[in-house]
Amino acid sequence: MTRRITSVVGARPQFVKLAPLSPRLREIGEERIVHSGQHYDYEMSKLFFEELEIPEPDMHLSIGSGSHAEQIGRTLVAMERELIDHRPDVLVVFGDTNTTLGAALAASKLGIPIAHVEAGVRGFNRHEPEETNRVLTDRLSARCLVPTEAAVRHLAREGIRSGVHHVGDVMVDALYRARAATKDAEARVRAHGVAPGEYALATFHRPANVDDPEPLGEIVAAIGALGQPVVLPLHPRTRARLERTELLGTLEGYEHVRLSQPVGYLSMLALLEGAQLLLTDSGGLQKEAYILEVPCVTVSMQTAWQETVDVGWNRLAPPRRDEILGAARGFAGGASHPAVYGSGEAAPAIRDVLDD
Ligand code: UD1
After folding, report:
1. What is the pLDDT of residues 266-281, one digit of tens each?
2. Residues enclosing ligand 1, CB less than 6 A?
3. What is the pLDDT of residues 51-66, one digit of tens each?
4. 137 Cβ partners below 8 Å, 6+ apart?
5. CATH architecture, domain defined by 3-169+342-355
6. In sequence order, what are the beta bridge partners of 159?
7. Can 205 be counted among the known catalytic residues?
8. Beta strand pairing status for 114-117 and 90-94?
9. Beta strand pairing call for 114-117 and 143-146
10. Is 192 exposed, middle or buried (0-12, 13-18, 19+ CB in 10 A)?
11. Domain 184-328 is found in CATH 1.10.1040.10
């Protein structure tokens, strides 16, 4: 009997993780892709499906923006209906978003086994909504597909020892695949008015950094004082917050800052590979910077990707101008570069676990 697999995605980083896995899942069964609609703008969603050649979703839940309760609640209700109508043998969820937890809860209540890609990751800050989503989703999952040795230890400490598979990180698979396919990386960089090797790349979207004008103002001031060209693709959340203050005008006034719409995955990788430095609060980009050997300053007091800090490629800084600049100045990265996220073979390893 053909195995039926449902994969659920909804936010930008999840589309990237699905891209290398979907073809592998289709080797062992029929995959149905459900898009929750947590991200819905063209640049935040459809562009990723097009560039990464992910099959069109079979179902759109259209949950949209909203509070955490609204997003998780709408996903839970819509996923229950979806799972009753198309009862899969396994539900695959990714990462730590509200989509992940809402879908996992629905499956758990219906007795459908859950496989969690990127399980066991911990930032050790229970105030961060993603941490709640991680801990609860792991608890509900029959298969925890973990990216790192550290994640295996985190799960063991919480008493989760069976069904844990150290497969490596699918983002490495995604990155290698995209890089091999991108022929026009330099043109993608030059489209932003900078030359490879001569600029810093910056991205910000975490509520803790952008929702309140004070940290946001400090980050803008740090970008203003960076003393080299800065490419800054603006996440819709960040643009909305900047527009409410005079800070958008401040950024537009800096001659060295190149503001843009959110960019797709291929341009983001090209921009990152050509950057001298990354300034970010994105989880995924911290890892991608590490894989591409770009020094990273993360504007946060914690990271779920502590390995990158331990080996000297990532520095943490609070959202304060002087501390961000202090971390960024003269930062050239670490001395060694171990393959802590694996070798780009996570997707076939996940296929084999689910095939078993
Ligand atoms: C989610 C994830 C977070 C992930 C982030 C990636 C949770 C708890 N958080 O946050 O882990 O790092 O996505 O971006 O699930 N918006 C648009 N168009 C879109 C999408 C969003 O305008 O297509 C706006 C919305 O109005 C909203 C804000 O951006 O105000 C939300 O953005 P973001 O922080 O990305 O999304 P979350 O769903 O909150």
Report:
1. 999 999 999 999 999 9
2. 11-13, 38-41, 44-45, 65, 96-98, 129-130, 205, 235-237
3. 999 999 999 999 999 9
4. 93, 96, 100, 101, 104, 114, 116, 119
5. 3-Layer(aba) Sandwich (3.40)
6. none
7. yes
8. parallel
9. parallel
10. buried
11. no
